[in-house]
From TrEMBL:
Residues 27-120 form the Pirin N-terminal domain. Residues 177-273 form the Pirin C-terminal domain. Belongs to the pirin family. This is Pirin. Pfam families: Pirin (PF02678), Pirin_C (PF05726).
Amino acid sequence: MIGRRTISLEPREVPLGGVRGMSVLRTLPNRDLPTVGAWCFLDRFGPGPVRMRVEPHPHIGLQTVTWPLVGDMRHRDSVDSDVTLKRGQLNLMTAGNGISHSEYSLGEEPIPLDALQLWVVLPEPARHGAGGFEQHTSLPTVAIPASSGSDATATVVLGEFAGIRSPATAHTPIVGAEIALPAGSRVTLPLDEAWEHAIVLVEGDVSIDSRPVVRNEMLYLGDTRSEVSVSSAEGALLFVLGGEPFEEGLVMWWNFAGRTHDEIAQARTDWETPDAASARFGHVVTHGAERIPAPELPNVRLKARRRRI
């Protein structure tokens, strides 16, 4: 058991550089908190005019969750998916033992773009399975009654929240939900006491259990909570992350999630070896030879990340 916490986690700016020419705000993994439930990664790219060109690159051992806020994106992958993603829609890609994909903004000029990119670490045996892709263009919503002001609306992106379940495939007990809180409202969000949770302020202003939170800040709540009170003066957009604490040792490096250094090193070798890359990660539909090469591994063995809070 982790117990209740009220810990602020601030994002750090990470330049992606290259032809993408963009930076992201990264909140997870945090040096003190590698996961919230099975959520192991959270980036926000935008808002701003961006010409995004993320060329084909590989993943293992995780699911990518792409949740757009502003603008449209094109997703292509090695299981023959080629789709456009819009606000209110979910792209969910399951890497399993290996998959590759690309992400582009639409058109050749910079466009307004803002999105959350999240990863979910896969448990046994899903992390050894085949890759797959799902796009969900309609997700369930539920009204959260207000004790003052207007009711909030929760969109259940992944897992289960307030008795409503997303149609997207989840491999662990988990929740990912967007909460739209009207101006002048106070609501109580229901939580599963057995799960740990965190709340990110995406836009607007919010107080969580009377504690003000700033934009892009994540407030980690720990577990043993059955509810949490949120209120907003001007209106807010929140994202709730949570789930059953992930107890397995997790080794993360670049785009890979594994359990040991050797697993990660083998995935890198496979991506950098043409025949092995083709066999394991496939070829991203409609792309040519363009790809993102893997960086060099550090000169030390990678170790599992452990929570410190």
